[in-house]
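Example (one chain per record):
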Amino acid sequence: MSGIHKVATVQFEPTMFEKERNIARLLELCEEAAKAGARLIVTPEMGTTGYCWFDRDEVRPFVETVPGPTTARFVAIARAYDCYIVLGLPEVDDDDIYFNSAVLIGPRGVIGTHRKSHPYIAEPKWAAPGDVGHQVFDTPIGRIALLICMDIHFIETARLAALGGADIICHISNWLAERAPAPYWISRAYENGCYVIESNRWGLERTVQFSGGSCVIAPDGTIAAVIDGGDGFALAEVDLGRARARKVAGEAVFAQRRPELYAELMTNPHSWNPRDFFGLYGHQPWPEGRRSRVSVAQFAPTADMAANLAAIATLAGRARGDDAALVVFPELALTGFADPAATAQPLAGEVADSLVALAARLQIHLVVGLAERDGGAIYNSACLVGPDGVTAVHRKLHLTAAEQAWAVAGDTWTVADTPVGRVGLLIGHDASFPEAGRVLALRGCDVIACPAAIKQGFSAAHAGTVVAQPAPIPTGADPHHWHHYRVRAGENNVFFAFANVRDPANGYPGLSGVFGPDTFEFPRREAIAAAGEGHATAVVDTTNLASPYPTNVVRRKDLMVMRLPHHYRPLVQMQQGETVQG
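Predicted structure:
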C-alpha cells in the first residue's frame, strides 16, 4: 500500500429546502475532485440539507437512513473512481431518532458512520447526541476518523481518534465566528501529529454567517491547501508515514503520555453549579473573584544565575509598574539551559530567600522556572512565590527526550489559591499534552501559569478572508492567527499565562502571552509580547458577581459543562493505541 495519497476538501454552500439541488452539486464537486486524482474527498457538515433547522418537524422531510438513497449515489462515484468520500447529512435510525451524521463511503459501500457526539447550540432542537463513540476505520488509503464541527472544540475527541491510530481526521463543519482556517483545527492536527482534512461550508443561512476556509492541515500544523470563500475544492497530498511517526515538535508525545495522571478526565465538576461544587463541605472554596493584572516576561536565561536573577528583578519591576499582581517567567529562567544538572539548586535557603525578598519588595507573586536539586534527584521545576514565601512548587510531569537525560519527572498536579484566583502550574512541554490543561481546568483553575521554552506552535500571519463576518469579528490580516497556547486558554475557559524563552539565535521566538478564556470573544482579552526581551500584561477577571450561578465564563466554564466523559475512558487506559475499529 502506498503511503502517499492525494486528498480533497470540498467547500460548498447548501440551500435549505433544496435537498436534490444540494446533492447534485455535491456529486458534481466530488466527481471533479476524483477526476483530479483525489482518493479521499471530504464534504461539509449537513451538506445535503443545510444546517439551521428549527425543530424535528421542519427537518423531518429531509432525514434518511444510512445506508440509504443518498449514500448510494455517492457509492457510485466512489466505485467509479476507486475513491473514498465523507458525506454529512441528517440521519434517522429505526427508532425515529435523528442524528447529525458523517458517513465514510468507499468503493464497496458505506464503511462507517460518526454521529456528532458533542452537540452545538442548534442540534438539541432536532438531533440526539451521537451514540457510536469515536471510531477509527481502517481503509486501503489509511486509518480514518470522523468528527463533526463542535466535536473538535473538545480536546478529548481528536485525542481518542489519534490514540485509536488515526492517520487522518476528517472534520466536517459549519464553522462560524472567526477567520478560517480556525486555530482549533490547527491545534488538533499539531498536538496529535496527524492530518486534519477540514471541510467547512460558507455563506449566509438564517442570519448565520459561516466562515469557509476549508483546508488540509499537516501533522506539524502547516496548511497544505486551503480554499477561502465560494464553492470548490482544494487538493493536497498526505503522507501516512508522517502521521504514523506521531511526532510533535520532534517529540514522541504518545510515548510520553502519563495516563495514570489523567483519571480526572472521567469527571465533570462543572455539570453541577460550580460555585457550590467548589467549596462543598467547606473544602477548598474558590478564592473570591476580582479583577487583577497578570504579566508574562520573556528573556534568554544563561548559565549565570546572578545575571538571571537580575533580569528577573528588572522585568518583575516593570510588570509591577503595570500594576501586575502576578508575573510568570520562562522555563529554567533562574538556572539556565546550558547544563541544568550542573546549575541545579535546592529550592530552599539562598534561592528561595532571594525570590521571596523580591516578591516582598514589589508586593507581587512570581512564577519562576529552575532546575531543582532535591537530594540525589534533579527536577525541571517552577515555584510560585509570594511576599510571604514559597506558595507551591510544580515538577514537570512530561519530559522531553533531552530532559530525560538529567531530570526526574514529577508525579503530581499543582494548584494554588492566590489573590489573583486559583492558579494551576504547567511547564513547557507539559502544555503539549491537551490532557494537562484539562485536568487543571476541571480542578477549577482560573489561571494556568506556564513557564516555557517552546520553539514551535506559532504560525505566520493570516492574510485575512473574503468571507465577511458580523462586527466585531475581524476578517482582516492577523500577525498571530494561530498561537497554540491561545487555544489552550479557550478550550479550557481559563486565562493562560504563557512565558516563553526569547532567544531567536537558538530557535526560541518568545511570543509570550496572557490569553483569555474565550477564543470567540472579540476583541480578544489578551496581550502578546511580540518582539524582544520584555513583558506583556493583561487584565484577568475572575469576578463571579452575586448570582450563585457564575456569569463569568472563566468560572462558568461552558466547554467543561458540555464535556461527555462517558466517551473518554480510553484516554486513561491507552498509552499508544493500536486499536482500530471498522
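Caption: The chain has two domains: 4-247, 291-571.
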